[in-house]
Amino acid sequence: MAVKEAVELLKKGTSFARRTKYREALACYDKALALDPASAEGWYLRASVLIETGKNTEALVDCEKAIRLNPHYADAWSKKGLALFNLERFEEAVFACTRALALNANDATAWYVKGVSLDELGKSDEAQEAYGRSLELEIILDMDAERKKVRKA
Amino acid sequence: MIAIKAEMPLSKPIRRFLSRTEETLDTEISLLRNPEAEPGGTLVDIYSYDIEKNVIIFPAHYIGLLKDFIIAKHCTHLLIKGAATKKAKYLVCSYNGDTVYRGMRQIYFDALKDEAKKDTKLPVKKLLQMLFILYNHFHEDINEVPWNPITNASVYYRMPKIRKTQLYHVMKESKADMDEMMDQESIIPRRYFVLNKAMFYARDMFLAKTLPADELLPTINIPQMKKFNHLEVKEMLTTRWTHTAWYQSKVFGDNMVEILDKHLGLVDWGAEPSIDYYYELYRTGVNLTNHLLAYMTMKDWFVWETPAHLLEAHQKKKEYEDEALKKIFGDLIADS
Question: Is B103 within 8 Å of B298 (Cβ atoms)?
């Protein structure tokens, strides 16, 4: 019962987050996690909003909780990479992104964050390779977004 | 507008360019993601609007290099505007009651010539509506098209690491621009359809040469122009290509390419990126705009004025349209 309610709260939180109502989204996620602290998705979603609001240290903690609950959670590793980059912990960001990409090689953000982190570490050639992969995937996403726009119109 | 203030990673060259832009102009730039943003992004700047901070807005799903190019392009444009403001005066193509009248009047005469050849005439109401819509369309184009190759060339030379991203954006933009007006081809006067396509053709030809990227050539990238690729002279003369709007666009476009080359060929794209460099880009843009307007016999359609003048003109555009219609049609137009 509690788990079902938690799932509903996560959906509600995500809806708020999409409309950039981050305070409301966080409130929903907090309630959801109080009901079901074993929800890796809950910790991940909360981390995403925390990053949007600049709270990278707290986001990192949430990402790590998500990963402890589900070590194969690609999105959580990717988000961890982003939080670490924002905290200027570039070596760790590269590691986290690499883990994310081993689980899901089609994560454009993870490739990009890996690229910018490698750039910061002075590893320019590797950075360019990561950027190249990121761009390929971003283009696919963009073309998809354009197709959806045309269908809606 | 739902805008998401971006906490986002930026690649090193872009971060540096953003910083340098802020330092050079002594201003601040915010980045915003917006699900409704135009694919090419939007620059809302302190030189064009009465605001305190510049904002670059881009689509929410641009998470990596796609947004980096948008930022680079708009920073370049911001530098051009800022340099003009600092060195002299930043002016834009604006309009007033007289220029709107002149433009609409010319469009009306051209529309009459076209209508005379058609079997099915355009309803009068639609014809009247079209006059200002077309005028406004060219106003938007002339404030955008001459600056596009300038900002793109500058970004190309200064940001080699995002060239692949740039190519993708430019090709996408080219296809979207060429698709403009397609639904109205049978309605708008041929002359304006042709000139609209010609401007984009010229831009794409210049960029194809500069980037360099054969894929950008309109005869390769644009479906309607593919048939003109490798056309033999004999084939051109024996087939009735000359009657098609797209062929005419190519002919006018080739002339506009020469105009672009004349002005943009003089620019030292690799010069030190100082205020003077960006001011030179501004002057080049103004000269190019004037030359294109003269070629299209639209010189008296617009006036160079301050951005504030343009904002006020936008407020008054309905008034200008109504006045122009009254002047053209006299008592035949009922007071609204």
Answer: yes
Outline where DSSP puts E strands in chain A: none
Tokens of B71: 């930022």
DSSP secondary structure letters along B145-177? TTHHHHHHHHHHHH-GGGHHHHHHHHHHHHHHH
CB contact under 8 A, B65 and A112: yes
pLDDT-based confidence at B230, cuts 50/70/90? low
Q: Where are the domains of chain B?
A: 4-87, 92-332
pLDDT at B4: 46
Sort out which chain B residues have CB atoms less than 8 A from A53's CB and list them: 7
**Residue A70: inside a domain:** yes
Question: Does the pLDDT at position A68 exceed 80?
Answer: yes
Q: Which domain holds residue A99?
A: 39-152
The answer on pLDDT for B168 being more than 80 is yes
Per residue in B74-120, pLDDT (tens digit) is 999 999 999 999 998 999 999 999 999 999 999 999 999 988 888 88
- Report yes or no on A76 lying in a domain: yes
CATH number for the domain including A111?
1.25.40.10
Which ipTM value was assigned to this complex?
Answer: 0.88
Domain-embedded: residue A124: yes
Q: Supply the DSSP symbol for B334.
A: P
B11 with B19: CB under 8 angstroms?
A: no
Contact (CB, 8 A) for B38 and B11? no
Nearest-by-Cβ selection for B66 from A82, A142, A146: A142
Instruction: Round the average pLDDT of chain B to a whole number and report it.
Output: 90
- Cα A5 to Cα A35: distance, rounded to the nearest angstrom: 8
Chain B residues closer than 8 Å to A112 by CB: 9, 63-65
| Residues B101, B323: Cα–Cα separation, whole Å | 8
- Residue among B179, B220, B174 nearest B200 (CA): B174
Shortest CA distance to B181 belongs to which of B167, B200, B162, B202? B200
| B109 inside 8 A of chain A by CB | no
Taking Cα atoms as reference points, which of A53, A41, A101 lies closest to residue B7?
Answer: A53
**Which is it for the CA torsion A140, A141, A142, A146, positive or negative?**
positive
pLDDT at A6 over 80: yes
Question: What is the three-class DSSP state of B56?
Answer: strand
Q: What is the mean pLDDT of residues B192-203?
A: 94
Q: How confident is the model at residue B242 (pLDDT cuts 50, 70, 90)?
A: low
